Amino acid sequence: MSPLNEQQAKEYWRRNLSLMVKLLVIWFVVSYGFGIILVDVLNQIQIGGYKLGFWFAQQGSIYVFVVLIFYYAKKMAALDREFGVEEE
Amino acid sequence: MDLQTLTYIVVGATFALYIGIAFWARAASTKDFYVAGGGIHPVQNGMATAADWMSAASFISMAGLISLSYGGYGGSVFLMGWTGGYVILAMLLAPYLRKYGKFTVPEFIGDRFYSKSARAVAVICLIICSVTYVIGQMKGVGVAFSRFLEVEYDTGLYVGMTIVFFYAVLGGMKGITYTQIAQYCVLILAYTIPAIFISLQLTGNPIPQLGLGSTLAGTDVYLLDKLDMMVTDLGFQEYTTNVRLSTVNMFAYTLSLMVGTAGLPHVIIRFFTVPKVKDARSSAGWALVFIAILYTTAPAVAGMARLNLMQTIEPEPGKYLAYDERPVWFKNWEKTGLLQYEDKNGDGLIQYSANAETNEMVKIDNDIMVLANPEIARLPNWVIALVAAGGLAAALSTAAGLLLAIASAISHDLMKGIFTPGIGEKAELMASRIAMAGAIAVAGYLGLNPPGFAAGTVALAFGLAASSIFPALMMGIFSKGVTKEGAIAGMVAGIGVTLFYVFQHKGIMFIPGTAFLGDTPANWFMGIEPNAFGCVGAVVNFAVAFAVSKVTAAPPERIRELVEHVRVPVGAGEATGH
Predict the structure, then answer these.
(1) Neighbour-count burial of B573, counting CB atoms closer than 10 A to its CB (0-12 exposed, 13-18 middle, 19+ buried)
(2) A27 versus B381: which is more confidently predicted?
(3) Which residue of B49, B66, B73, B566 to mutate against A (max A Cβ within 10 Å)?
């Protein structure tokens, strides 16, 4: 059985969802936003030999994805400890 | 030492390593066989997942797919699509499924939707996805052997099957995990070493990811600007802005690949092997780190190999290479049929152009970009031998992961779960080994006699995973209200719509002549090509599942408890089959 009462379980899940939504917005913006929808606008900016939109589509979005997962893992581990639901 | 001998030595050494691991990591229980005992370190699992994930297609074909077929920027759909799925997997699926702690994906679907029918539907989806996918890997093994070791395609396939048989049947997930770790090391070295050399030669920068954005060595011209200029001179679309059909299509394509990635069972079950929920989250991050090393190198290989190829054919604007003076690698790959030249105007020169009428490079296979890369850059023979071993490692590791997903669905879901529930531990372990051996035989047969539709099937596997398995799993975790009727109807509708769309444009079961709508943008729904349609199938799945759930009896109370239980890490215990 979960050690959380109904109220706590709701709160834990709400905090998880809100973290997830924030990170998924970033996930969406760097790939679908910068890499696809706004690519022409970003391509006006050049960094070294890379047009910025092209860079996000072929490089940048992937780096951001990696950071997002580790950030989520770290934040969730802290949330687990706060609610006392981490595994021993 | 000549290249042939060197290749035999390098490939032979890697195979001896895989077999050694097979004997060391034998499975003693069903838990070893299905989830490697549940004690794999998250970084190790990340590495194994990366090898599991990166197939013959990622290793051999992707760079060429980006630079030739998809003409540069358009190929970004693969780069973003095949990596972004891990973000969804890490947040929406992996930790909760690990918490539930069962052996297979259909098992969760069957329990959450309190229905053996739901489990059976999930097994069918899983088998269709995985079998179509494994055919491509078997072909990859045969092709790699025949090109690098100059043995018959069939012989290569038998050798590959024997190796997989050893470690997959003996060791199950345990053997597969440790061989995948070794295979990752082989394939990533084989991919990055040639890329580093080529980047160094072209730009003076040893890091390919930076080299692609640098100036060409000894000039102040950016590599990508030069590439854009050369392709537009030949009549192609500009490399860095060449959209794949339309913005809507690129959006749908990327989304389908991401959702499909997150829904592929052979990837999901890798996360059942780590000890804790917390490990499942971080392990997805490690997997993506190891994948990203190849996936951020691939666009550099794509751009640089294309540039090298064009500069070989047309060293200066308007000055074409004479066919008689073509380099050795050109001749070598002509023999395999991957490069073809036709002197259309009879001047003995090689004219490469976007115009099909005058283009004399009548065939440049995508695979050339990776396979011929070390030769174009004049790298030493041991690098070429390593590329052969890398291609084989990529194909074998993915094949083994898929075969395990198929075998466990048969022995654990169909036999233990549905048909013979009374079966004991020892008998189930034996059944799983037999199922594995059977799966290898079937995959080998299909590799030897690829059905006519084999070419289109990897895209189909993603479409089906996206439209059936992913939505069912996500609703199972994030909604307490979706009912068994809803889930089953959703899966059937999702797959149905996706298959219907693919078949109407590509032919029923891909049989030529049975397509009843031409495969052209004008006939496509919102201009979305069939390979990119999985995300639409997923939306249909969600919509149907919620609608049907509204009008059917709510799930029993214990299902609400099950969902509550899955959402909180504590009390995960170890993965179990009961």
Answers:
(1) exposed
(2) A27
(3) B73
CA distances from A35 to A29, B90, B417 (A): 8, 22, 44
Using alpha carbons, select from A75, A27, A76, A31 the residue that is nearest to residue B570: A76
Digit-coded pLDDT (tens) for B265-312: 999 999 999 999 999 999 999 999 999 999 999 999 999 999 999 999
Contacts of B520 (CB under 8 A, 6+ apart): none
DSSP B272-317: GGSSSHHHHHHHHHHHHHHHHHHHHHHHHHHHHHHHHHHHHH-SBT
Q: Over 50: is that where the pLDDT of A1 sits?
A: no
Record: contact B284-A80, CB cut-off 8 A? no
Would you call B90 and A72 a contact, using CB atoms and an 8 Å cutoff? yes
How many angstroms separate the CA of residue A29 from the nearest CA in chain B?
12
Hey, which residues does B364 pair with through a beta bridge? B339
Nearest chain A residue (CA) to B300: A58
* ipTM reported for the complex, 2 dp: 0.97
B105 within 8 A of B122, measured Cβ to Cβ = yes
Nearest to B193 by CA among B57, B201, B183: B201
Per-residue confidence (pLDDT) for residue B496, from 0 to 100: 93
Please report residues of B whose CB lies closer than 8 A to that of A65: 83-84, 86-87, 288, 292
**Which residues neighbour B256 within 8 Å (Cβ) at sequence distance 6 or greater?**
B81, B462, B463, B466, B531, B532, B533, B534, B535, B538
Q: Which residues of A touch B571 (CB under 8 A)?
A: 1-2, 87
CB pairs under 8 A between A and B: 148
> What three-state secondary structure class fits B396?
helix
Choosing among A13, A18, A36, which should be mutated to test the B contact, i.e. which has the most B CBs within 10 A?
A36
